[in-house]
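Saturday, quiet lab. Running sequence design on the structure tokens for the scaffold JK sent over.
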């Protein structure tokens, strides 16, 4: 530990008198060169050179050992915290390491004997934007946080400390306050309900996590959906849809593309969180889904009424059950290298 007056590393004893203030220490040596003995009054323990302990005007950084004296529980698990790397590396400036790296100088807090109001950066008292700016002093260089100022979370005053717990995390990876998906379900109750539907991505079963598809810190504008889709996606291969990270057979490129996949994306036909249909479709039947775009009536498609410019004179009677499941014939609906109607 270091003397709070001269900063020298010394052996210390915490002094508790009638007027004791947390963090005042009697040191066995002092850089001032004065004799190594101290006034023995129970109400006033100080270095022989007359030092009165830390003052609020001091800009010097205290040792983390000073914080440890009162915040023992936090200190005992701090080595598991990724923020402890700032101490272990030995490369960071003292004011960028340990407790004071996040909370600011502890001298005023020590002099006052505690209290949140004396901490320069007490996160429970800070506004969301202040919290974000504080964290970004170190984390701004991380590419996956490049858009943190513009996603829905930030726009709705969801600060870093809403999802992350630095001192008491449920998981030390990412320092989350709760494990996924329970953390996300605290706000996204509608999505939780969708994951209870029989046909869904298996998030509740632990085979996937929300962050496999989503970037809670915000992402770049997706190149599909006319820029109107969520900006909180983990894009695949830089700019492709997140779905293609797992469904690689749908990536293409195909000689005959299904245009809607390139313009509106997978969500034009699928509900990624859950659906009552086996293929996570947005409509209960395949025919209902296809008719949202391919709206020919009567002699179906005879007048090129499907919305795509290809010669097609086939007659489809949607009263006939044989024509009500489009993918029975158009089996390569995501794209084909053989047939322009996606038949093969």
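Result came back. Writing it out in full:
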């Amino acid at each position: 530990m270091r003397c709070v007056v001269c900063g020298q590393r010394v052996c210390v004893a915490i002094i508790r008198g009638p007027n004791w203030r947390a963090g005042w220490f009697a040191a066995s040596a002092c850089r001032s060169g004065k004799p190594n003995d101290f006034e023995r009054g129970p109400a006033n323990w100080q270095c022989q050179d007359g030092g009165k302990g830390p003052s609020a005007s001091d800009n010097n950084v205290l040792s983390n050992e000073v914080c440890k004296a009162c915040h023992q529980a936090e200190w005992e698990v701090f080595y598991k915290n990724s923020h402890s790397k700032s101490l272990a590396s030995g490369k960071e400036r003292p004011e960028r390491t340990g407790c004071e790296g996040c909370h600011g100088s502890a001298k005023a807090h020590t002099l006052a004997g505690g209290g949140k109001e004396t901490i320069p950066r007490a996160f429970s008292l800070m506004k969301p934007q202040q919290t974000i700016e504080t964290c970004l002093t170190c984390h701004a260089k991380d590419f996956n946080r490049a858009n943190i100022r513009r996603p829905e979370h930030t726009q709705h005053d969801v600060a870093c400390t809403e999802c992350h717990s630095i001192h008491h995390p449920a998981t030390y990876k990412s320092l989350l306050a709760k494990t996924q998906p329970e953390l996300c379900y605290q706000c996204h109750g509608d999505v939780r309900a969708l994951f209870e539907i029989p046909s869904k991505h298996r998030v509740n079963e632990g085979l996937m996590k929300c962050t496999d598809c989503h970037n809670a810190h915000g992402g770049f504008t997706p190149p599909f959906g006319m820029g109107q889709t969520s900006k909180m996606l983990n894009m695949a291969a830089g700019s492709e849809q997140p779905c293609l990270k797992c469904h690689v057979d749908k990536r293409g490129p195909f000689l005959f593309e299904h245009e809607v996949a390139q313009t509106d994306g997978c969500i034009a036909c699928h509900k990624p969180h859950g659906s009552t249909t086996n293929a996570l479709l947005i409509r209960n039947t395949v025919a209902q889904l296809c008719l949202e775009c391919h709206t020919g009536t009567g002699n179906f498609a005879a007048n090129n009424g499907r919305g795509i410019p290809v010669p097609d004179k086939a007659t489809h009677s949607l009263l006939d059950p044989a024509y009500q499941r489009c993918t029975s014939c158009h089996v390569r609906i995501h794209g084909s290298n053989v047939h322009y109607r996606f038949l093969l």
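Notes for JK: The radius of gyration is 31 Å. The first strand starts at residue 12 and ends at 14. Ask whether to fix the surface positions before the next round.
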